[in-house]
Amino acid sequence: MAPMAIRVPHGRRLLAGAALLAGGLAATRSPAPPADFVNFESAHVHPLALTPDGSTLLAVNTPGAALAVFDLAGPAPRRIRVIPVGLEPVAVAARNDREAWVVNQVSDGVSIVDLGTGNVRATLRVGDEPNDVVFAGEPERAYVSVGGEDAVKVFDPDSLAKPATIIRLPGRAPRTLAANAARTRVYVALFEGGNRTTTVPAESVGARAPAPDPPRDPALGPAPAVGLVVQWQGGRWVDDRLQDWSAQLPAAPQDVDVVELDVATNAVARTLERVGSHVLALAVSPLDGTVAAAGGDARNLVRFEPRLRGFVVETRLALWSVPGDLKLRTLNPHVRHDSLPGSLAETDSALGQPMDLAFSPSGDRLYVACLGTDKVGVLAPGGRVVARVPVAGGPSGLAVDARRSRLYVLDRFREQLETLDLTTLGRVAIASLGFDPTPDEVVNGRRHFYSGGNSAHGDQSCSSCHLFGDSDRLAWDLGDPRGAREPPPHGETDAGLTGFDPMKGPMVTLSLRGLRGLEPFHWRGDRPDLAAFNRTFVDLLGRAAPLPDSAMASLERFLLSLRQPPNPRLRLDGSVAGPGAARGEHLFRRRVLRDGRRCADCHSGPSGTDGRLVSGRVLGISQDMKVARLRGLYRKAAFAHDGSAASIAGFLESKHFLPGAGAVALAQRRDLEAFLLSFDTGMPPAVGRQVTFGDPEGSGAARVATLDTLVRLARRGVCDLIAKGVANGQQRGWVLMGDGTFQSDRRAEGRLDAEALRRLAMPGGEITFTGVPPGCGVRMGVDADRDGRFDRDERDRGTDPETPDSSRPGPE
Q1: What are the pLDDT digits (tens) for 22-57?
Q2: Per-residue model confidence as pLDDT tens digits over 515-559
Q3: Largest Cα–Cα separation, the chain
Q4: Short-list 690, 560, 576, CA closest to 112
Q5: Residue with the larger pLDDT of the pair 427 and 637
Q6: Radius of gyration of the chain (CA)
Q7: 101, 165, 98, 108: which is closest to 134 by C-alpha?
Q8: Helix or strand run (H / E) with residue 793
Q9: CB 722, CB 736: distance < 8 Å
Q10: What's the burial of 131, exposed, middle or buried (CB within 10 Å: 0-12/13-18/19+)?
Q11: Minimal CA–CA distance to 61: which of 28, 33, 90, 22?
């Protein structure tokens, strides 16, 4: 393939996207935001897979909770089936030509799909937030990355009831997996590998704080006493002026980005460092075993917003030879980050937020899907970019079909499959994965959130730090010494509030999930609403001007749609698990602290905050802070606003909380920590839980007990409950109604109770029950496209239940 540089003139990408929205695929979308959609914003990992014989392409439809199956025999891929799986599928792998494993992030499990019957034959519960699966070894084993448990779990695919082998990893949040051609090595990319940075606490910084650059206005008086971000370099902890802080932080950090597993022993064979702070994509060359990893490296060591402007994260590719040295490449060598404003040529050629990597079978090309810039990059050996191919919107997955000279691209923004010609890199076809329930206002706002076009050079976005609407778990010092002090917000009742100094010190990136009703925003409460963040596009991302009001309003609607997944530490009914968490809840709600208040007095409300600001004098620090929300603490690695506390128990040693020494005080802090890590996220644990009947493996009594609990919770309105499966050779669906019976997807058919429905299940005709968010049951159970015509009724008439236009023929 000759080197080429395919680019789109500046500004045309939005026009191309608008043209697609106006085309036939737009008909598969509801024009108004529905009440039956919840946006978890789960990130794709490996959303496309070819079966070994190359005849079939598998694609996850994440918002549709389904696996789309495409026949590749014709001139373009043809969707032949849509198979319901678990909630938020993010990855799929074909074990063989008849069996696929689908990783469902919110359901915390794997749907094992029989491609012959078009049904889930078994559900494998694997642990909190699974991300990916690969097959390796002899005898064959399934390797599943479990992000919430920092582990890879190894399963026998022929005996699912056997306990998994658990491989604990030297790093956080394993995400993407890849195996070498011989299937003797499995590689694991750690999403939160880190970049060897931490925070020196304010009390340890003291008078040694470096002079601010740019200089501070002397009229502002002394700056607040704040912490300092430092990085491990050359065996020392240094700040961005290379001042040594090793005496304050004696321990060397953990920095593992990629792990190599020996399949024969399931042991860690080697580790790779310095790839970047977050690794998003991974692939292994079939030619020579070179490992390619792509992601971003956060520049949070750099102090102050003016010095970071336009260059927050470097987009990187790492090439790791086996054996050999690590080679690091930037995916944007053409960008001059030290020059503002950036040029149109830089923006049009930028590659941002790499999501997937795929080698050609010969190993002479490496393709990278870049979500943030709506492009697929084509790389030569060594990592040189030889082409940048514009695609429809939000590319998040790739599959190379050398037999047909095609490259398949999954477009996340519209849940579409785009087919490119490998020779010309032109578009061959585009097809829907099935019905996408995401409302237009969420899709439009999502584009602004991920778009590199809203930055100075085209390669940075909101998601550079707020990865997939969440957090990068890093501390940043985004103050501006040139700024002015702002007064306390109007209406705050604490007379001791001092207002907001422009030098605020390090603060850990906050999650954007579950923001509704939490104004004001930021750790300090210095942003009254989401519209106040528009200045960040100019001040930090380097955009020439703020977003237009209409674009900012669209972004706001997207952000307010984001929801947190269920807390895995809670029981199915939502109660805390274990006596420690129960004692901690009592302390939280009843224990009176030194200031005469209980934890629950300030950390009130569903999110664990009353939204008020508390003066620094009361907190014993130099700045006022908003009462922190408690939802999502179980996902954090460091605590306190600046990330300087390694644990909640350590943070609670403050005199304002549970001070004191001895076994009793320590036990109370640990009990309170157990409760806070179990704090309800606002999404019931029943949401996503699945149980399959008809699969002969496993304990029938345990499954029946789980189903009984789900029925009870659904009747209380905690969740909705649906069932999907094959009955009498037909794909079917059901939803639990208020009277405790299941309505089928044939509207006129008689209803069944839970026992009668589960007794329909049999090998080859399995039925899977799933708890889904309240209000989503009818759509997800019996009316996939919301057109009021139930799914089986449509299939009986020969029309497509995935398309609201019911005159269109169905794929089955």
Answers
A1: 233 333 443 445 789 999 999 999 999 999 999 999
A2: 999 999 999 999 999 999 999 999 999 999 999 999 999 999 999
A3: 80
A4: 690
A5: 427
A6: 26
A7: 101
A8: helix 791-796
A9: yes
A10: buried
A11: 90
Q: CB-based contacts of 417: which residues, under 8 Å, 6+ apart?
A: 48, 57, 59, 68, 70, 77, 408, 409, 410, 411, 430, 431, 432, 433
Residue 459 CB contacts under 8 Å (≥ 6 apart), including other chains: 315, 332, 335, 350, 351, 352, 372, 373, 452
Report the alpha-carbon distance of residue 212 to residue 215 in Å, rounded. 5
For residue 187, report the phi and psi dihedrals to the nearest 5 degrees.
-110, 140
Q: Give the Cβ contact number of residue 506 at 10 Å.
A: 28
Torsion-angle region of 350 (φ positive above 0: left; ψ -120 to 50: alpha; else: beta): beta
Own/partner contacts of 107-114, CB < 8 Å, gap of 24 or more, are: 107/688, 107/689, 107/690, 107/770, 108/568, 108/688, 109/690, 110/142, 110/144, 111/67, 111/85, 111/86, 111/690, 111/768, 112/157, 112/160, 113/67, 113/83, 113/85, 114/764
At residue 345, φ and ψ (nearest 5 deg) are -65, -40
**Is the separation of the CB atoms in 208 and 227 below 8 Å?**
no
Q: Which residue has the tokens 């009462």?
A: 627
Sign of the C-alpha dihedral computed for residues 343, 345, 348 and 349 taken in this order: negative
Q: In angstroms, rounded to a whole number, what is the distance separating the alpha carbons of residues 140 and 154? A: 10
Phi, psi dihedral angles at 293 (to 5 degrees): -135, 140
- Euclidean distance between CA atoms 320 and 324, whole angstroms: 7
> Any residues with CB less than 8 A from the CB of 755 and at least 6 apart, and which?
none
- Rounded to whole angstroms, the Cα distance separating 107 from 123 reads 10
How does pLDDT run across 264-286, given as a tens digit for each residue?
A: 999 999 999 989 999 999 999 99
Whole-angstrom Cα distance, residue 387 to residue 199? 40
- Residue 356 pairs in a beta bridge with 369
Kindly give, in sequence order, each residue whose CB lies less than 8 Å from that of residue 447, ignoring residues fewer than 6 positions away: 17, 393, 394, 413
Instruction: Please name the amino acid found at residue 259.
Output: V
Which of 765, 808, 773 minimizes the C-alpha distance to 686? 773
Question: Residue 244: beta bridge partners?
Answer: 238
Which sign, positive or negative, has the C-alpha torsion 269, 274, 280, 286?
Answer: negative
Distances 221 to 209, 247, 489, 502, 507 between C-alpha atoms, Å: 15, 29, 21, 12, 22
Separation CA 512–CA 471 (nearest Å) = 8
Q: Is the peptide bond before 520 cis (omega within 30 degrees of 0)?
A: yes
Unique residue bearing structure tokens 């390090």: 506
DSSP tag of 213: S
